[in-house]
Amino acid sequence: MLSLLAEHPLICALILLVIDLVLWRFVGASHHNWKILVRLVIFALYSLLLFNEGLSPMEPAPWVDNVPLNLAATGLQIGWWLFAARTLTVLIGAVMMQRVGHTGRLLQDLLGAVIFLVAVIASMAYVLNLPVKGVLATSGALAIIVGLALQSTLSDVFSGIVLNTTKPYQLDDWIAIDGTEGRVIDIDWRATRLQTSQGSMIVIPNSLAAKAKITNFSRPSDMFGLSVCLQVSPHVRPQTVIDALERAMQGCRTMLSSPGPKVALKSSSAAGAEYEISGFVAAMSEKRSVRNQLFDLAYRHLKAAGVELLSNVEPNPQSDNSRPRALLESSPIFSTLRQEEKETFSQNMNLQTFRAGETILAAGEVSHHLFIIESGVVSVTLNVHGSLIETGRMGPGEVIGEAGILTDSSSKAEFSAKTFCSLYRIEEGYLKPCLDARQDINEAMKTLLDFRLHKVQALTEEVPVVVRKKGFFQWLLKRAS
Questions:
Q1: What pTM was estimated for this model as a whole?
Q2: What's the CA gap between 266 and 284, in Å, rounded?
């Protein structure tokens, strides 16, 4: 077998081509550098075999009298030009990926097309001994015909060059092209591919993207804008609504403090007044949850201020005396009370106010009363490994002090007023008999306490330190020092 290969080097050259194709097809992308190195070695061996046999790619194939051998040699010489073009394209692509990343893919494809075109023309001129001027003239005529037939495709190609040069967006950016929103998953010579929030893929031709209005939500990369619009009755004083919405913003800890969120009155008419909360978050993935949280906080703080969202049927205004009763109605803990029980319960709720910065319940204090937040924002601070960290913010309808009522244990966190706060206070002496009589309320408060204790435990538990294993080299260095 070896003697056969030595006597017929052309067979060896053909085998090298097959080996290259097989390796490039089946070796995984994780070994890309090894694939390039192997291709260079195979190309060098292929060139060595051809030149050693007297088959120069710059000259027509010998053995004119032996037609089969002449055709085989001609094919191997043309294969050398194509092999060289492919090897050069791969090397250029590897260099461009290291320097400019995926954005250089379009330029790499164009350079590859030019290199292959040069290789084809060179093989025709040198190997097949065809007149280059005639080939170029024919190619020019064909290029005009193809160009006229592929105007839209060429428009996409050149638009792709413009987009890759100006870089209005890159891979993994969240963008909107004429209102079509999604994450950029691919940019090639013809189109830009977006993945929407629903998981579907949208293909937008580069020529349309180059002419369209592009909104890039990922730039700057450390903030993503969001806005929430709400409509209320035009008869409500604007400052009352703005104050309530500002408290709602302060209750959302996820929004960035710089640049800070803002509230604005967008429009007002006889049909209603529209207000907008706008701000920024640190990650695109947080926008949906923060918007939902803002809607909920705005609803609760507006209701605490006596303002209802606009609807076809305006609710009857409630008197100041019904506010404790309204809190019980909206509370997930006390909503199961019967109407007469709620009436009696509300008469035993005392209003207490706190200025911004005042402590409502200190850490380590055993509370003998339960607070229900009527209005304002309460900050929750926890001592985590010796540092005081704000772990949450609370708003209207939420309760404070359930640990002392249920288990006579001290509070793990400190609760202080972030803004001016109004809270209704229920004494332990009145609340205890109610908990003993109503098992559903007792269970609801226990569930809330368990949730908060688990959250405190998750925040304060020690993270295990990973001990790195020391190898022989580290041991040797330590001994040498």
A1: 0.59
A2: 25
